[in-house]
Write a structure and sequence with these properties.
The protein has 303 residues and is an alpha/beta fold. The protein has nine helices and 18 strands. Helix 8 (251-260) packs parallel to helix 9 (279-288). Bound molecules: zinc ion (ZN) (2 copies).
Length: 303
């Protein structure tokens, strides 16, 4: 099952060196989730061939403009493109007012249903839940209320061993129970254990998005063993003082979080406009956590 993330933007605050502000698209088996929506996000969606009709849920981490200034533009384009199916937005409470005031003064009447879900930064909780996936907030420490997002696949049902199902002549209506892990007792009362009828399902995968934040270990337990971690890395380690002052993180700090959480890989992003050469950041982070990758625009990473 497809589970990957495409980077649409990963620069901090000011666009620089052809790098754009934060946005990324998570693709879970064709279902798209947009995470942050910096200025010009829809241009990069076009450039990288993102099928926006498959996008039904947008998550905004906080209200610094580099994380949401592209949102009203995207919502307006959906309207002009005759979107009809509902769209859900998850973000800090004032975002609803910001959206509404744009539509009020432009006298825009949406042709699709827009559902706004207020996300609070007081405790981590599940804000999205479907048959295969949940999304939890991650409480970050920034100058404004900020949450990251933890996307977690649900535990898969067990895989049917087709040969054994045929061998024991198991009726079709029993398959769902067997997939859930139940044993089978046939008409003669013979007990067949589930382990004989099924195989282990694929391990559920997870993705944690952490932007923006000062260095904090407060969410380490929550995201332990995440397959892929995106952690903001605004500064090189030499600029640690500046990072702390502005509630941001350095390369080595982000890598330390990846190490502490035993993440499969680390994507670093939210690069300060002061750095033209991103290898500076990559190499520093790799010293602490070798499985580090630059979250550069247009790159897609398998979770
Ligand atoms: Zn930012
Ligand atoms: Zn910020």
């Amino acid at each position: 099952m497809q589970f990957d993330v495409t980077i649409l933007g990963s620069n901090a605050a000011i666009p620089a060196y052809n790098r754009h502000p934060s946005s990324q698209v998570l693709n879970h088996n064709g279902n798209l989730f947009l995470i942050d929506c910096g200025e010009g996000t829809q241009f990069r969606m076009n450039k990288f061939g993102i099928k926006r009709a498959h996008l039904n849920n947008i998550f905004i981490s906080h209200l610094h403009g580099d994380h949401y200034f592209g949102l009203v533009a995207l919502l307006t384009s959906f309207n002009l493109n005759w979107r009809e199916h509902p769209l859900h937005i998850y973000g800090p409470p004032p975002l609803e007012e910001i959206i509404n005031i744009h539509f009020k003064h432009s006298q825009t009447k949406l042709k699709y249903e827009l559902h706004f879900h207020s996300v609070l930064d007081n405790e981590a909780k599940i804000i999205y839940d479907d048959q295969v996936l949940t999304v939890e907030t991650i409480i970050l420490k920034h100058r404004l209320p900020t949450t990251g997002f933890l996307f977690k696949e649900k535990k898969n049902l067990r895989k049917i061993n087709a040969e054994k199902i045929a061998e024991y002549n198991i009726p079709h209506h029993k398959i769902v129970e067997i997939k859930r892990g139940e044993d089978y007792i046939n008409e003669q009362g013979k007990h067949i254990p589930n382990t004989e009828l099924t195989l282990d399902p694929p391990h559920p995968r997870s993705y944690a998005y952490c932007s923006d934040t000062v260095y904090t270990e407060s969410f380490v337990e929550q995201i332990k063993s995440v397959n892929t971690l995106y952690h903001e890395t605004t500064f090189i380690h030499e600029h640690e003082e500046r990072a702390t002052e502005t509630f941001h993180t350095t390369t080595k700090q982000a890598a330390k979080i990846a190490k502490l959480t035993n993440s499969g890989k680390l994507l670093i992003g939210h690069f300060s406009a002061r750095y033209e050469d991103l290898n500076l950041l990559l190499n520093e982070s790799k010293e602490v956590f070798p499985e580090t990758y630059l979250a550069e625009e247009g790159k897609t990473f398998t979770i």
